[in-house]
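Lecture 7 notes: from sequence to structure.
We start with the chain below.
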Amino acid sequence: MSDSGRQRQIVELLRDRPFASVRELQERLGVSAATVRRDIDKIDEAGDARKVYGGISALDGAAQAGVAYARPYDENRDLAVEAKRQIAALAATMVRDGDAVIVHGGSTCFHLGAKLADRNIRLFTNSMPLVAYLSEHGHCSLTIAGGELHREPGIIHSLTQSVPFYASKFFLGAQGIGPEGVLESHPLLVRSIAELSLCADQIVVLADSRKLSIHARNVALPLSRIGTLVTDNGLSDADARMLENAGVMVRIASASGAVQ
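Predicted structure tokens for the same chain:
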């Protein structure tokens, strides 16, 4: 297959999914990693998709108008950082000494895990970045998800093993939130959220207010499953009413430390 033919095939693949790894493209196209990386560079230069760590990502809205795609973890962690820290600080107050909690992958959940690092709790996570942080800095009891490492979206997940943990609270982030529920583009995140949601008494979503304006393709959890949303003070009145009408408790974090 010619260079242009491979590159067209990669772009076509990204019409139906948000991300493709170098390893996956190697296997699909039957070429070396170096060849795949050269193709990715060419596609990125042409503006048809975006080069990211570990592979290539579809442009936002590339496959469906009005539908956003999941940003790579390394890119997303640098967005709305202060709001995420405020949300994590408030969420940490919802955890009591002796609790068992599940903290999902994602940048806001990473900040929560860092806040809980020295607490007298049991913490289960599938987040590769959080595991790395807690292995060096934490003193909490840590249980790590079993399975394969997926560098994008940065989680450890098994298609066959059940989760050997039960928690009082499951904290998770979201790519988007709407009347349908918690939204994600990456199918692996949808699957892991659904599985972990069965392992906790309460489900708490951590999401800055931008997420209420993002529509992703898959519903990971309906609003009826969500107990609490912790967000920032950019939440609109209309979105607050929508959430409260669905039975979701909304808690607002602010820079001053005040909450609602």
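Points to note: Residues 140 and 216 are 34 Å apart (CA to CA). The first strand starts at residue 19 and ends at 21.
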